[in-house]
Amino acid sequence: MSTWTSDVTAPRSTWFLRGARAAFSLPGLILVSSFIGFAALAKDAGVTVAQAAFMTGTVWALPSMVVLVGAIASGAALPAAMLAVTLSAIRLMPMVMALAPEMRTGKTRQCVLYLLAHFVAVTSWVLAMERLKRVPPQLRTTYYAGLGGTLVTTNVIVVSVVYAVADALPSAVSAALLMLTPMYFLTSLWGSARERAGHVAMVLGLVLGPVFHIVLPQIDLLVAGLIGGTVAYGLQLWRRKVRAA
Q: How far lies 21's CA from each of 15, 121, 146, 151, 161, in Å?
């Protein structure tokens, strides 16, 4: 991998396949395990296999898919379900904003970035932010297309296959599998945080989340994230001023 940046003469198909190969990694396997849990959840909620596979390919982000299945199971109206999924997906905007500059060059078309933004989710984002720095800038969109496209396609197949045998999967196992991806994301963010503020924000979020789930259950994550992030950012500014003084 360390020689990738010098391998500019390799055809685009090679870079696409390298991205596809990156999908078959430990994070990719964790994601597959989570989608096994989702398949069981979808079947239990009365979602058909075609609908579950369609959700995987179009909604893609697992938390948003869980929110959508929950809305369907509760009989929520379509506008309410759309709003819930949209609010859940807003969290991906900072990831897209961080990833797009890593792939953009002077010749990169906007439509390509819009298309690749669909593949942005926890696992693909973490893998891309870790590995794109070793890919020549003009080939990063090709590499990420292989990575994101393979993750989506693989999990569409996994959901379709597991759906058929989901009745044999205990509910406790399904729930545990769904939790693997957020746990992986948390540990990855902790390890990749460049400044202390990132650690402070995560700790505050973990502490404040359960508190606001009791006090403000409708907007608990939003409030916990806003307060935790603001406090962490304020502490970071204060530390910079102290160092400058």
A: 10, 18, 8, 10, 21
pLDDT in tens, 178-237: 677 677 667 766 766 667 888 888 899 889 989 988 988 877 777 888 898 899 889 888
The residue whose two tokens read 């090679």 is 14
Residue 132: closest CA among 105, 153, 110: 105
Quickly state the pLDDT bin for 51 (edges 50, 70, 90): very high
Three-state SS string over the chain comes to CCCHHHCCCCCHHHHHHHHHHHHCCHHHHHHHHHHHHHHHHHHHCCCCHHHHHHHHHHCCCHHHHHHHHHHHHCCCCHHHHHHHHHHHHHHHHHHHHHHHHHHCCCCCCHHHHHHHHCCCCHHHHHHHHHHHHHCCHHHHHHHHHHHHHHHHHHHHHHHHHHHHHHHHCCHHHHHHHHCHHHHHHHHHHHHHCCCHHHHHHHHHHHHHHHHHHHHCCCCHHHHHHHHHHHHHHHHHHHHHHHHHC
Number of residues assigned to the chain: 245
Between CA 104 and CA 112 the distance in angstroms is: 10
**How far apart are the C-alpha atoms of 61 and 125, rounded to whole Å?**
11
Percent of the chain surpassing pLDDT 70: 92
Structure token digits, residue 39: 């398949």
pLDDT of the residue at 188: 66
pLDDT interval class at 167 (50, 70, 90): confident
| Residue 181, pLDDT score | 63
